[in-house]
User: Fold Glucose-methanol-choline oxidoreductase from Sporosarcina globispora.
Amino acid sequence: MEVLLVVRGLSNPFSIPFQSLEHMEEKNYDVLVVGTGAGGGAVLWRLCEKWRKNRKSIGVIESGDLLLPTHIYNIPGLRKKWKKYYNEVSNPIGQHLPQFLGAEQVFAVGGRTLFWGAVTPRMHASEFINWPISEQEIDTYYQIAEDIMQIHQASSINSLHLQAILQHLHSKGFHEASPIPSATSHGKTFSSLCFLKNAWEQHPFDFAVKARALQLLMENGKPVGLKVGDHNKKIHVLRAKTIVLAAGSLETPRLLLHSKIPGNTIGHFLTNHSFIKAKGEFISKKVGNISENIRILIPQTDETPYQFQIYINKRLINAVGFGKVESLFDNNLTLDPLSVDEYGIPKIKINFSYSVKDMEIIRQMNEALHQVFNYLGARVVHEKGKAQIHVMEPGEDYHESGTCRIGNDPSQSATNRYGQIHGITGLYVADNSILSSIGASNPTLTTVALAIRIADHISNSYSKERTK
Assistant:
């Protein structure tokens, strides 16, 4: 049985064979990766690149199944049907989380990267002040991530309309406005399936789908394996010397908590973006007649703790704003012993609220977005049943993070500067949950950069063991 995967477009297809969990039970992997979203895919690719000339064994499990062979926008005729496909693999978990109503999970090969908007800014420099990693240190990994993901600014960068709009915004005080950086090249959008393809071309790995990670197995304080459930609810035990969890900011801490992994901050410091949306239409010609699609980013600055993404389609404007949210210990997820899933594992409860400071940033965003529309000669269009600029539910940004955040102090972080759970050799996290803070920037590029760095650390650790 094989899974067909393609990189960006539908040309040059290739296949990676699925393995059964029965087959994988017979091995003891050097590294076992849990999850195939942005973080898991990046770790896998980098390890395969580093180990292309040796015989290290790598296993990968994904709780979902194959849904699409590439990002949905790369398949002719499916762009307008994305919601149908998304609903097939999404879990609207927020329906049962009153304080995080907008949350949804995606269970499929490639995870959310099958549907994401591919907006990939770097995080604002101010965020790294309290990180255990300097901006200079992560810059190298940003460059690697941007190269492998083929990140470019908007294809219309040479557009006279775009330049006129940018100059106008600059003159009005939005000096950092620029084309949106995007993981889209030659009209094709990146997904984590690209990581899987590039990984397979360099080093083989065993890959099982519909394989749900249930519980970590520990011996003498170190991970030795993982209980995994298949689609028939049969339990399997996979063995591994190193385990990398990349199941997402809600599922990864759930697995750690259920496995009774020590760490007082696991599940705490849950962070997201406050999230606003607005639609508008041009009512004057301050920026001329626009006859093309234009995408503009107004990023976070030292003075403005929010980011706007402006999408102009001739006479219409769609805008979204992301606001910085404080990383607070009391914003957390815990296990709910009164509610369990089909495997008998407790589901999660979430305690989350915006602080006074967060609410002030939402107010500032609202005011600033009105200014942007006004400067562009547009007015906000009222949508039925919604405020002109409406605030989305917590979790609806899909940028949840921080629940296993990196740091030097175990009392304030779950993982060390290399994404390894404090005090536990061989247990790593490589998804959005390790982000110490996210400011107002889309988190995916930073997560990929950190995941690549984690893979380098794992590879280097094995090399040091060999030379002892």
In short: The mean pLDDT is 94.
